[in-house]
User: Which sequence fits this backbone?
């Protein structure tokens, strides 16, 4: 089971988007997860509440981010910095 809480996933996806959405190396990720990432941002910033399908899109974006960095999907992260540090090990 995934150990990172949903609210933390939304926070980390938001931070990743804020920092890297204009980076060429991450373009394919943002193009593919063009619903889940913005919805995670909306949840994190308290702009919206998701239904079951919306949660599913955010979860897919989270799994995609972990795959993007080749990280164990069962690891627990508290921040984007921690996730990137883990990826660099």
Assistant:
């Amino acid at each position: 089971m995934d150990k990172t809480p949903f609210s933390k996933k939304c926070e980390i996806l938001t931070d990743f988007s804020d920092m890297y959405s204009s980076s060429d190396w991450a373009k394919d990720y943002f193009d593919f997860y063009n619903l889940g990432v913005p919805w995670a941002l909306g949840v994190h910033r308290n702009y919206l509440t998701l239904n079951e399908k919306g949660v599913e899109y955010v979860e897919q974006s989270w799994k995609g981010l972990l795959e993007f960095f080749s990280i164990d999907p069962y690891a627990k992260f508290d921040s984007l910095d921690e996730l990137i540090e883990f990826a660099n090990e």
